[in-house]
Write a structure and sequence with these properties.
Length: 272
Amino acid sequence: MSNPTPPNNSNVKGAIIAALITAFASFAAVFLIFYLNNGTSNATRVNTDPSEEISQLREELEEVERQQKLKIREKIFKNQDNGDDGVYIEISYPEVYGMSDAEKQRKINYHIRLSAFAFEEGQNIEEDYDSGSVQSAYEVKENNDEYISILFRYSLYFGGPYVHYGQSSVNINIASGEPFQLKDLFRHGYKDELFKLIKESFRDRNVCGGGWTSLKGVNGNEDFTISRVNIEIHYDRNEALAGNCGAVTAIIPLRKLEHLINPNGPLGYLSY
């Protein structure tokens, strides 16, 4: 009596896999038919073509992404060629473009440029000085569908051993096209706690020794910027710490400020 031929393992595995694939395909087909016939019975179906639905969803997502950020390009102002007589000025700043609301775009760009040239406040540099240079650069700290926050850093040199370094900022509400101030972010009575956090930031980060400060408190009009996780409050030379420290910045995590946020202010979404 001959021994039975052992089964071919590869054939068995192949049959099992084929059966599983067939079963899965049948289940998927039944589910799809059920969904199309019943799953949307509570709503009017205008189109049941999955490819067209996916295309529509993709277009909606792209529109949301377009609305989340302002389009920005760099602008550079130069009053002359470097090396010419007089004060050389070179200022870099962002310009918003492509908004459907031209008047709002104009307002936003006006406030950006005003802040970029804040170093000129109260003086006419080209007439007041015979030589020297003014240069600046910018950093967009945040650009979302609520606001844009920009920091400008500049240097001024008009002879002598020292270069003066300074900072200015602008934060603009996208819905209105108008800038907002530090005090607009918080509820009434925020100043003492914010001042405490500012001093803690200098100390914990050991900014210029992290000790003595000439600050007496918060007035609500300080230069500041907002990132996704921090509020940064910017001080020029001699405003907060000893003059030899130059321009300094206090960095405060937003999580430490949530209970102080004005629910009707620019960061109101953090208070819920």
